[in-house]
């Protein structure tokens, strides 16, 4: 009866959660599109020479929003009248839509876990959020077909779902605590690939910034020559900011070796600039290398991928101290392939066509930069991982005691050595020196009566054991060696162990009282 009663409630709760997730995806799409539309409309209002009405501004906002998802656009209002493709994605614009989808999927699973109803599975939550988002995106695609920037259908069907589903999947992964594969090699490869990718992109940004600072005069002239109005300059500045991540990818591709294309037949690599570049006047393009062969300053860009793969291989090597050499090499190679795949995707987004004819190829070539990243990781990262693993598995040699410590130890061993046939031997470290035979603790007096407590035992010849006797190798007035006190307990403690103390100076107890005079 309980199962029949709760089953409809569970199904209804899960359906409500999926509907809520779908709504969250649609809201995320609307927020991203609205933020970009506000920015474009504000620029259109502030422009003293608007080319079109509010409809044109909204169509431009819709086109830029789709371009931020990797969708190629087609410009119809060209001077020649022929449509020209636009495939370079301003990667900074991608951050907001991706973050909104990521947060929608994460909040869907977090809210379901904290509520009373049964939460949906991760796949269902990702599908619901992505479905709601893509419904809004489909409406935007249809709306943009009537504007000056229609969508290229193939790229819209490929890149738009891939970006949305990937961002939603990352949000679900975050909601579950960012778990890594249970296999140690796979988890180590992912961590190393992330470290190498961050180092490569950061180094590419540094290379691009240094080059831009070196050509600061040309960049300023290009910026001032684009427009003379302050509204136009603000728009150009916003476009420059949106293309800064692209600049980092270009710098990384330049350091990797393949470089990037500047039109059909023109390449910029650390070895030099080949061909006739067809670069339009733009502030960021002023940072391109000069004509001619590259010098040592251009070759210094190779330090970026070198540092990236060294850190990547070192991370694998530190995790592989208990692995075999084969597993270590395969893990480092997997990290290289993972980093190369992400670099290829970023290169495909950072480059693309800007028009027809010579501008049909512009920016990094995705398969070349991806292959170069894998090659760097295989040739440098794998040996680095093996070297770090071998260094971590080394066995340190035992440290020898200095001569200043060995000399007193040898003197003490010689002083405690027994006399006789074994006098020439030196006891080994940790050995116990030989002791004398046990002596009765309560000897009898002259008339057969027991001596008072504390009286030292009598030795052969009428002498007590407490009296000093000549010992081989010592003077008459010297203290006996350490082994001579074995069996003698001056403190009345049965647990006393004379070997726990260094036999440097023995301090005997108080002298025993004199014996009582015999009665007449």
Give your account of this protein's structure.
There is one protein chain. The protein is 55% helix and 4% strand. With 520 residues, it is mainly alpha-helical. The strands form three sheets. Strands 6-5-4-3-7 form a five-stranded antiparallel β-sheet. Helix 3 (91-114) packs across helix 5 (153-175).
Give a brief outline of the structure.
The protein has 520 residues and is mostly helical. It is built from 14 helices and nine strands. A hairpin with a 3-residue loop joins strand 8 (458-459) and strand 9 (463-464).
The proportion of strand residues reads: under 5%
| Tertiary shape | globular
* Major beta sheet summary: 5 strands, antiparallel
- Distance separating the two termini: 112 Å
- Arithmetic mean of pLDDT: 80
Overall helicity: 40-55%
| SSE arrangement, N to C | HHEEHHHHHHHEEEEHHHEHHEE
Please tally the β strands and state the result: 9
Layout of strands and helices, then pairs:
Blueprint: H1 2-46, H2 54-67, E1 73-75, E2 84-86, H3 91-114, H4 122-144, H5 153-175, H6 184-214, H7 216-226, H8 230-242, H9 244-256, E3 260-262, E4 267-269, E5 272-274, E6 292-293, H10 296-299, H11 303-319, H12 325-350, E7 362-363, H13 366-392, H14 403-415, E8 458-459, E9 463-464
Antiparallel strand pairs: 1-2, 3-4, 3-7, 4-5, 5-6, 8-9
Helix pairs in contact: 1-2, 1-3, 1-4, 2-4, 3-4, 3-5, 4-5, 6-9, 6-11, 6-12, 9-12, 11-12, 11-13, 12-13
